[in-house]
Design brief:
Strand content of chain B: over 45%
Radius of gyration of chain A: 13 Å
Oligomer: heterodimer
Radius of gyration of chain B: 14 Å
Helix content of chain B: under 10%
Number of helices of chain A: 0
Distance between the termini of chain A: 37 Å
Shape of chain A: globular
Order of helices and strands of chain B: EEEEEEEEEEE
Largest interface: A-B, 25 and 23 residues
Largest sheet of chain B: 6 strands, mixed
Number of helices of chain B: 0
Distance between the termini of chain B: 38 Å
Structural class of chain A: mainly beta
Largest sheet of chain A: 7 strands, mixed
Chain lengths: 111, 115
């Protein structure tokens, strides 16, 4: 059974640009959540999608957005990148009321 | 305001001994707690969880203890093995009743098991 797949694994962007990250959940998992991991803040919840609807949102500015498609694949977008957006972005999928399975993450570096 | 705290950034333990990782939380609405293990360049891997209706859950070498009155949980690894060397994250969630939950993570404790 394939795990959670995130692409790309690594990304370097320039301040002010925008970026789109992709996540393919485990087959049959309809919930997809996104987390940001930085050395200073640990893992912080960005948002959760279920059946193409955002069900929950963390405390991040509006520059961070996401969406989910009918096949449960999800994308997150960060516009007007700032240096502080450099982080590991983790996607996790789950079945209702069960634990997450995380992907390996996308390492974003903003220069 | 950090709702889940792991006050020890790092811990070193001899192989074969017990590793004890601690976690404190402040939100009394949390009713489900999890531990994740993370190696560099990989996503976190689920280790063990505990519901607030229990005070102990065991899975092989891993045991999680929950003290609700103290808002404290701990992960015991016995015996510790070099392959256990990783960053361990404590996480907590509060039931939303809608099947949705978000995890609030601590900042992690880096465990080093010395052969």
């Amino acid at each position: 059974k394939a795990g959670v797949t995130q692409t790309p694994r690594y990304l370097i962007k320039t301040r002010g640009q925008q970026v789109t990250l992709s996540c393919s959940p485990i087959s049959g998992h309809r919930s997809v959540s996104w987390y940001q991991q930085t050395p200073g803040q640990g893992l912080q919840f960005l948002f959760e999608y279920f059946s193409e609807t955002q069900r929950n949102k963390g405390n991040f500015p509006g520059r961070f957005s996401g969406r989910q498609f009918s096949n449960s694949r999800s994308e997150m977008n960060v516009s007007t990148l700032e240096l502080g957006d450099s982080a590991l972005y983790l996607c996790a999928s789950s079945l209702p009321n069960l634990g997450y399975t995380f992907g390996s993450g996308t390492r974003l570096t903003v220069v | 305001d950090q709702q889940v705290k792991q006050n020890s950034p790092s811990l070193s333990v001899q192989e074969g001994r017990i590793s004890i990782l601690n976690c404190d939380y402040t939100n009394s609405m949390f009713d489900y707690f999890l531990w994740y293990k993370k190696y560099p360049a990989e996503g976190p891997t689920f280790l063990i969880s505990i519901s607030s209706i229990k005070d102990k859950n065991e899975d092989g070498r891993f045991t999680v203890f929950l003290n609700k009155s103290a808002k404290h949980l701990s992960l015991h690894i016995v015996p510790s093995q070099p392959g256990d060397s990783a960053v361990y994250f404590c996480a907590a969630s509060a039931s939303s009743g809608a099947g949705s939950y978000q995890l609030t993570f601590g900042k992690g404790t880096k465990l080093s098991v010395i052969p």
